């Protein structure tokens, strides 16, 4: 709502209206007894006001754009809960749906690197998927979401609060 009102006031600022300006001058001359100097000075004052307002709007745009960028950045950086990562089972070769790791594209080798299976049943090298989940908590294949590190933190806070009560 506030944005709508601002957009409207901004639109009016952007629009020049020479006819309305001239009418205003005539009205003031005729009924207000304004001198030509006073009218000119008023026009200059209006022009200055207009520039200041447009500059203020431009700065507001910049702030908004920066905030949106930061918000995007926060969303991208969304690590998985460490507890959830460590709870993922360690399948052996043959137990996994996949034959290779979708992250590094290497084949799973019997007795080779450790594997981890996500709750969505997609498996990867442990090193590859842990590294991946430290940045974003979604499965690289199906985008299944592990709990976030923030959820770990909330749980920790609740436990602390409960402990302090009892
Ligand atoms: Zn891998
Ligand atoms: Zn998956």
From TrEMBL:
Residue span, RING-type domain: 101-143
Kindly state which keywords UniProt assigns to this record, in alphabetical order. Metal-binding, Zinc, Zinc-finger
Q: Name one GO cellular component term.
A: nucleus
Q: In which domain of life is the source organism classified?
A: Eukaryota
Cite the InterPro entries for this sequence: RING_finger_E3_ligase, Znf_RING, Znf_RING/FYVE/PHD
Q: Which GO terms describe its biological process?
A: ubiquitin-dependent protein catabolic process
Q: Where is the composition biased (Basic and acidic residues)?
A: 8-25
> What Gene3D superfamilies does this protein map onto?
Zinc/RING finger domain, C3HC4 (zinc finger) (3.30.40.10)
Q: Which residues form the signal peptide?
A: none
Q: Which GO terms describe its molecular function?
A: ubiquitin protein ligase activity; zinc ion binding
Q: Give me the ranges of the annotated region Disordered.
A: 1-31
Q: What is this protein called?
A: RING-type domain-containing protein
